[in-house]
Amino acid sequence: MPIYKAPLEDVNFLLNDVFQIDRYDNLPGFSDASADVREAILGEAAKLSEEVLQPLNRVGDLEGCTRHDDNSVTTPKGFKAAFKQVAEGGWLGLSVPTEYGGQGLPITLSQTVTEFQCSANMAFSMYGGLTVGATAALLVHGTPEQKAMYVPKMVAGEWTGTMNLTEPQCGTDLGLLRTKAVKQGDGSYKISGTKIFISAGEHDLTENIIHLVLARIEGAPAGIKGVSLFVVPKFLVNADGSLGQRNGVTCGSIEHKMGIHGNSTCVMNYDAATGWLIGEENKGMQGMFVMMNEARLGVAVQGLAQSEVAYQNAAAYARDRLQGRALSGVKAPDKPADPIIVHPDVRRTLLTIRAFNEAARAMVVWTSLKSDVAHRSSDPKDRQEADDHMGLMTPVMKGFLTETGFANAVQAQQMYGGHGYIAEQGMEQFVRDARIAMIYEGANGIQALDLVGRKLPRDGGRAVMAFFGEVGAFAKEHGGDEAMKPFVAPLSNALGHLQQATTWLMQNAMMKPDNAGAAATDYMHLFGLVTLGYMWAKMAKVANDKIAGSGATAYLTTKLVTGRFFMERVLPATTTHLARIQSGSATIMELAADAF
């Protein structure tokens, strides 16, 4: 059976040593997250994930969700009780303002908890994750009355939330949506239409579900400029907060899908359902983008999380599985064969996954801290810099972390040979579950186009130039440190590749947009690799300093070896990505459409 152990030591190293989270005590909520509080919260989050959620992962996969004739949906055995524990533990409101029943703690802390829960049980974690995203959208764009009516119940886990965008004829291009909204005399709207692929659209975990729905008001402009956002509860809510009559929204079916079987991915039918406008008419994407950006970062964490749990199981198997003898001589003479961990190619595979996981986790913490600054700082300059970082890194994290996370799950499955292909070991579930993260919340090709087409040129390239400046300054400052040369020299080289690629795009994409489209995915991966290289250099600096100050430990020594592996074996891929980018789009676009 699969195993999972929350990486508490690694998280604490990042929070306490690499990013020194206590330096942010001037921001609201951070002083309440002192070291002892963090330790207690993360310890409990680990316990919940390991002991409650992880054992339900295979149950959810095998059992799935069941839709009944009355359109209700039952979640897998144990999910309802587990969700009650999550709700009663206050996990859904960890970073929500205290005035709405949350704890007001840093987003950085809640993203760490999200990783634990996603590794333990990705399908289950989505019920809470979508609720957190819907809460965020309501807090930013909802009226005071809407916030008071919905948010406290969602924070308490009494109600959950969803996002309803996709329709049969439109996914990425939401300007094509047909769901309509007809204004009523009391200011409400009647919403009619069909939405598909709605995660957690119907279930038995809570008494009410709050749907955030994109629709087009009668007479609205065509395209994306005519889309509005509405809140549509499953049950209408009375003035005193009690539940009223059932609304005109039902689950038409549950999608039969490749993975995340424990989450109810629904076709939702809206039949003159009563809803209320969130924000302004025809500006629904502003509100939905709050939730989508929250979701994209959450999906990036899913990529890391599946890579982490797959790695843990593959490493354990490699230590135990006997197969062949070491090339350098017998290592286990008392056994009929050596464990496969002695083989260089097995170690290459495991180190490739581990090196990604540890740097990706650092990237998540780094970006989460920027999110906290953007939302909580009173300094406009700090908020702007943090917002620039978030805008630039969101597509990189969503695209690069999920693609690499899926590839790592496949590599971890490979460690098992034929045993990895059968369901009993659980490895094929990690592969199937990880696959969706590359698709939803904007397919990764769209993330790459967003990075190249919108985020790079935004504000005259201010965000990307700040990134170049920060990484370049770090390399310059530590380039003369002998212990840092294995990290700084490769990082500087990779940064040069990213700068060359950026310059090439500036010179070749404006007049010929296909060059940008052809380069986008490679550029996203190039950017992701450089960012992970920067994270490794930062971690190496701290590890070297700690060793110099108080001596080596097994953790610090392992950290440095893993980092050197990344620099030697993974980061050189920037050369390939640069060559692909500079080859342009001519060959890609040469064939006629009917030649494919």
Largest sheet, strands/sense/barrel: 5 strands, mixed, barrel
**Which class of secondary structure composition applies to the elements?**
alpha+beta
Percent range of helical residues:
55-70%
Quaternary structure type: single chain
N to C succession of SSEs: HHHEEHHHHEEEEEEEEEHHHHHHHHHHH
Q: Give the overall shape.
A: globular
N/C terminus separation: 44 Å
* Contiguous runs where pLDDT drops below 50 for at least 5 residues: none
- The overall pLDDT average reads 96
Q: How many strands?
A: 11
Beta-strand percent range: 5-15%
Taking all Cα atoms into account, the compactness measure Rg is: 24 Å
The strand order across the widest sheet is 4-5-11-7-6
Output the number of helix runs. 18
Overview of this protein structure:
The protein is of the alpha+beta class and 596 residues long. Helix content is 56%, strand content 11%. It has 18 helices and eleven strands. The protein has helices at 8-18, 35-53, 55-63, 79-88, 107-120, 122-141, 144-155, 284-320, 344-376, 380-414, 427-435, 444-455, 462-478, 485-508, 513-550, 554-570, 573-582, 586-590; strands spanning 66-67, 73-74, 159-164, 180-183, 189-199, 208-217, 228-233, 235-237, 243-246, 249-254, 265-278. It has a five-stranded mixed β-barrel. The protein has a two-stranded antiparallel sheet with strand order 1-2. A two-stranded antiparallel sheet has the order 8-9. A hairpin with a 5-residue loop joins strand 4 (180-183) and strand 5. Helix 10 runs antiparallel to helix 12 and helix 10 (380-414) packs across helix 15 (513-550). It is globular, with a radius of gyration of 24 Å. 50% of the residues are buried.
